[in-house]
Amino acid sequence: MKEPDSSTHAKQLMKTKKLYSLLLIIIIASLLTGCGARLATTSWPGISSPDGVVYAAYGTRIYAINGATGGLIWAYPSEPNNARTFFAAPVQSDGLVIAGDYRNTLVALDAASGAERWTFTGASGRWVASPFVVEDTILAPNADHNLYALDMNGNEKWRFATCQALWSQPYSDGETVYQASMDHNLYALDLHDGSLLWSLDLGGAVIYSPTVDEEGTLYVATLGNEVIAVNPEAGSVKWRVQLEHSLWTQPALAEGSLYLGDLDGNVYALSAADGAQRWSQDLGEVSVIGRPTVSGSSVVFATQKNGLFAMTFDGARQWVYPGVNGTLYNGPITSEDRLVVGVVGGDNLLVALEPSGALAWTFALPE
What we know:
The protein is mainly β. About 5% of the residues lie in helices and about 40% in strands.
């Protein structure tokens, strides 16, 4: 195999560093911009779809969209408010849609109408990560370094302080809460009172939530370019793999493999058992960003500029959809058996595809 010349290597390195810096600037700008500023040009849509409705948080509003047709159901607030901006994907539970803004307000909306049910203003920082709901508890991580546990009426139960901002959604199995932090640690807490069970230094900050298998093993990708498997009971490392290029991702798990991409355009399948590399593919001069999505027999990756790539579990390319006409900073979600991705700077905020990669519907921001 012919080795790349020094100029090619330098260009690739420069591209990776440039994009990595851009992503950091986007999030830092989102955290530091004043309360009155509109961040639609420096954030990307946070989207979720737990019940056939797609909830999208972007700019000054939260939208509920019909997952089958792409039609608007409601928007909150009814009129855009430039003093409030949203980023993290809303969470739906028990008839509520819960989302936080860039100020310090966590809001619960009626899932059917979008009417405001309650607000929580006890945090002092921005809501960058999505909350996680388990049983009757809302676990809400904030950039003020605290994880807040609330009841379903928005009353605080307990809080746990870390050493840096929380940008990662927590996970709970109903007994233990797992929260990754920008302080490089993964924390295990008692769900009922927030007491610390153990903490583990991962050696790098974590942006995304852990991926969890049926046995409870936690898989985390760090900004130190490592993928780490963690024993949930002991808080110990089962295995760790160092990859060559920058990671801005959460692994997807299917068929005993972890699937992820890097900012240099490579996608990988790693053994969930020991981290051994099963295959890798170079998608070309693209940056693979965010969480890939398992859809049927495919793993779908988002690239910053070249759209969506669907791969088989064995690493064969199935289809490519380049027609998003914008920039992708996160992977797609699934809704009504379709793939839905949020787009920045394009004609549409959301693009939905059939499992075959054919266009299903689009959603543009209301005038």
